[in-house]
Amino acid sequence: MTKIKSIGIIAEDNSDFETSKVLISRIIKKDNIKFKKAIGNGCAKVKSKALTYSKVLKNRGCNLLILIHDLDRNNLQTLNTELDRKLKDCPIKDYFVCIPIEEIEAWLLSDPAGIKEALNLRKAPNVQGNPETIKSPKERLEKYVETYSNHEKDYNNVKDNEKIAAKICIDKVKAKCNSFKLLHDFLLSHTY
Question: How far apart are CA 118 and CA 45, in angstroms?
Answer without folding.
Answer: 31
